[in-house]
Amino acid sequence: MQSVLVENITQNYRTKKTVVEALKGVSFSVNKGEIFGIIGPDGAGKTSLFRILTTLLLAESGNASVDGFDVVKDYKQIRNRVGYMPGRFSLYQDLSVQENLEFFATIFNTSIEENYDLIKEIYQQIEPFKTRKAGQLSGGMKQKLALCCALIHKPSVLFLDEPTTGVDAVSRKEFWEMLHRLKLQGITILVSTAYMDEAGLCDRVALIQKGEILSVNTPRGIISEFEKPLWSIRANEMFRLMNAIKDDPSVESCYPFGQYHHVVFKTQENSRQKLEQIAKQGNYTDVEVHPIEPNIEDCFMALMKD
Amino acid sequence: MQNEKVITAKELTKRFGDFTAVDKITFDVEKGEIFGFLGANGAGKTTAMRMLCGLLLPTSGLATVAGFDVYKKNEQIKKNIGYMSQKFSLYEDLTIAENIRFYAGIYGLSDERIKEKTGSLIKQLHLEGQEKTLVKALPLGWKQKLAFSIAIVHEPAIVFLDEPTGGVDPVTRREFWGLIYEASAGGITIFVTTHYMDEAEYCNRVSVMVDGRIDALDTPANLMKDFSAKSMDEVFLQLARKAVRTGD
Amino acid sequence: MKQFLIFVKKEWLHIWRDRRTLFILIWMPVVQIILYGFALTNEVKNSNIAIFDQSKDEATTTISDEIAASRYFNLVKNVYSYDDIGGTFRQGKIRMAIVFPRNFRYDLLHGNRAQIQLIADASDPNTANTLTNYASAIINDYQQSVNQNEALPYTIKTQVRMLYNPELKGAYSFVPGVMALVLMLVCAMMTSIAIVKEKEMGTMEVILVSPLKPFRIIIAKTIPYLLVSLLNIASILLLSVYVLDVPIVGSLTLLMAESTLFTITSLSIGILISNTAKTQQTAMFMALMSLFLPTLLFSGFLFPIENMPIPLQVISNIVPSKWYYIIVKNIMIKGLGFEAVWKETMILVAMTAALLGISIYKFKIRLA
Predict the structure, then answer these.
(1) CA distance C262 to B46
(2) What is the model's pTM?
(3) N or C: which end of chain B has fewer CB within 10 A?
(4) Out of A138, A165, A301, whose CB is closest to B170?
(5) Beta bridge partner(s), residue C77
(6) CB-based contact B196:B173 (threshold 8 Å)
(7) The pairing of beta strand B34-39 with beta strand C155-163
(8) ipTM above 0.90?
(9) pLDDT above 70: percentage of residues in chain A
(10) Which residues in chain B are closer than 8 Å to A44, comparing Cβ atoms?
């Protein structure tokens, strides 16, 4: 069963002088119980998409449904059954942890006790602070509290809009571990993020850029869609090396990736030889060349170009 | 000249009441370096940067920036550094040209110099014809690149970048680092904080702050060797897990 | 120096490009001058008066004509009994009544003294004072003129009676005004800010995606302010009675009931504002411009409405505070009952119904 179905959704923002196309005919579907990632930078359209799916915004055209309910006609049913965690973890800063949770439980006609098992693991980490005002929690703790508030009514679908932005690296990792445990409870989870490496933690992902979907697949699937040969190379003179490689006509792209440059060639033939030749011509020291498998970021960047 | 130090810090400390935000940090940054200043939220990075920019007076310890003492010469420091952060870069309701003109003017550039710089900046960023566009109409990535270029319009000795690439698409991120490399090649020292650990690997040297102290300071390659890690991400996670403070 | 100038130039550009601020900066002074210069004035003109002439002789007619001709007064009615006077005052139709006793001229010519009674509505003590002074001056002038040719002086004594507020306490007109202002402020402005704050903080998004019906969210937000307002009214009344010595002459129940009605009116305006404002700043600005200032200027408690040019008088009719002010004055100061205020009450009810209707209709169940 499709938990979420999106068909050709477009969304525009109009200001006095301009029209911004936030979403340009986006389509994809999410299976029940999946962790589905929407991966893309700021301005790609992630938040607009989430707002349309949680019935907060009307799309200009196209259809979408959540759990079989249409986002326009059946918005009330959707609002009864989904959990939503928007960016900036909207919590009531001047209410305590406990008060926030009670509030959200009550407006969903349930209580903390009823679904405590669902949030227990997460809540126990912030329980010692339950009388502290939400505004005084650290980023990681706010994130956990916001997640509890979104889960407390046992939603069938969970929408998390950039839940890891602005949160420290350790909490980020823990958060994803929590999401995987939630998946076991059968909750469908849609997560949006600008961190490309988080794509690998999802069952399937949609890469989105400037309102358009670049690709929808499992992380492995996206990587296998990457056709061109990919090499990593390093030397002590990275900047000069990069410019030299970029100047070569057989090179599609050369981007820095930390300690190595990732080089994509236009065609498969002799790519290794060509690369080694470029390296020889420049008097570089400590050169290393390896063939590598692309990661999500490589794929995203290649798809962006097309 | 090679070893000219653009930043020196010795036991630099900042206390707010009982709370020690920055705890006796000691480090140097050499001219032309790209220095990565890492740390989790709440580790004390922002406070340390503010002290170095002359915006906050330290509680104790010593520091100089571009040769000027942070206690006594902070006005001089401000004239000789550039600054750019993710949260604020440019005035959205002014045009590109007006923003350049404003910042260049603030830094005391002469009119002809401003004209010259405007021309070269526009060209470098491929923004020809867009001089009269309001900044708010630019996509995020362009704004960040423009902000960086404007931060160094007066060719300062050192530029401080506070998480300049947050939320930007991967291609633009790298183009941004291309600009950083060019600036560094031109002799400007770069002091940058970031959450992207692959960007940490572009730096000449990196320091990692944990609970107000600097717990690691070396080249990325050495750190990865010392921590038996395959990437800076792993190094960072190992260090960050030990943190007691989880604040912000 | 150049750095300084470039900064100035930048600030100028910011202002120039922010149309709304520019509008205020340029038009505000103009509007103020026009308002204060022409429209709003403490000067009393064209006040409605009635004359009860029990003599109808040459003297009384002359004095009446002088008074009626004066630009300060507007003779609206000739009354024929004391009851009539009382009724006319209760209806709020006049600010002052002039009573000539029987045989006025006869007493003056034969006894060299006569009396004129001036009865003024002192629920607005300043106006009452001014009017009685003007009237006394005109009567004095008449006295001077007839004295010119006579050996023995004629004396016309004016007896002044201040209705509702014999001690001419300023608080009498000021307390009802403050009640209107406070209710408007607390209810409309604070409610709209509270609703918009939720939108600004982002928590509105989260609670909209819940079973809670959006309109219930709004009502829930207004109820605390309703209670706070009633508390405020109670405290104002307590202070008025015990500290300022302003009594509640009429029915306290009726007063509280009307106040509750006006509170709901203000709350509806608050909700309407929150529908359109996107930031707290905008909400506050809209509340100030459309409620606080009009209440201050057009409710009648600072500047008598009848002294304003006709267009402004018409505008004052759509300011709900104006009607509430009349109601409170009538009940609290004049001690009148529902019969005296039912018209104004109906107007408030109609306004409330209309405002609530529009708020509900325009209410957004989505973010945009």
Answers:
(1) 52
(2) 0.84
(3) N
(4) A301
(5) C50
(6) yes
(7) unpaired
(8) no
(9) 100
(10) 169
Phi first, then psi, for residue C367 (nearest 5°) are: -75, -30
* B248 confidence band (pLDDT: 50, 70, 90): very low
Q: Is A258 in contact with B199 (Cβ distance < 8 A)? A: yes
Strand order across the A251-257 sheet = A251-257, A260-265, A230-234, A288-291
Q: Per-residue pLDDT for B247 more than 60?
A: no
Beta bridge partners of C158: C116
Q: Which helix (H) or strand (E) segment is C62 a member of?
A: helix C58-69
Q: Does A129 touch chain B (CB under 8 A)?
A: no
**What average pLDDT score do residues C112-132 get?**
90
Helix (H) or strand (E) segment spanning residue C158: strand C155-163
Whether residue B93 and residue C3 make contact (CB cut-off 8 A), yes or no, is no
Question: At residue B1, does pLDDT exceed 70?
Answer: no
DSSP readout, B201-243? Answer: TTSSEEEEEETTEEEEEE-HHHHHHHTT-SSHHHHHHHHHHT-
Residue C335 contacts residue C250 (beta carbons within 8 Å): yes
Instruction: Report whether A4 contacts A188 (CB < 8 A).
Output: yes
pLDDT reported for residue A76: 92
CB C271 within 8 A of CB C191: yes
B186 touches A: beta carbon within 8 Å:
no
Tell me what percent of the residues of chain A surpass a pLDDT of 90: 56
CA atoms of A262 and C62, how far apart (whole Å): 108
pLDDT surpasses 90 at B189 = yes
User: Choosing among A13, A167, A170, which should be mutated to test the B contact, i.e. which has the most B CBs within 10 A?
Assistant: A170
Tokens 């990681």 correspond to what residue? A140
Chain B contact present for A44, CB below 8 A: yes
AA identity, residue B101? R
Would you place residue B246 in the very low, low, confident or very high pLDDT band (cuts 50, 70, 90)? low
Ranking B56-60, B73-77, B86-90, C20-24 by mean pLDDT, the lowest is: B86-90
Q: Please check whether residue A84 touches C, CB under 8 A.
A: yes
Q: Is the confidence at residue B236, as pLDDT, over 50? A: yes
Question: Within 10 Å of residue A22's Cβ, how many Cβ atoms?
Answer: 25
Nearest Cα to Cα of residue B96 among B54, B126, B53: B126
Residues of chain A with C-beta less than 8 angstroms from the C-beta of B232: 258
Q: Which of C266, C283, C287, C271 is nearest to C359 (CA)?
A: C271
Per-residue pLDDT reduced to its tens digit, C273-330: 888 888 888 888 888 887 878 888 888 888 888 778 888 888 889 899 999 999 998 9
Provide the pLDDT for residue C311: 84
Chains that touch B (3 or more CB pairs under 8 A): A, C
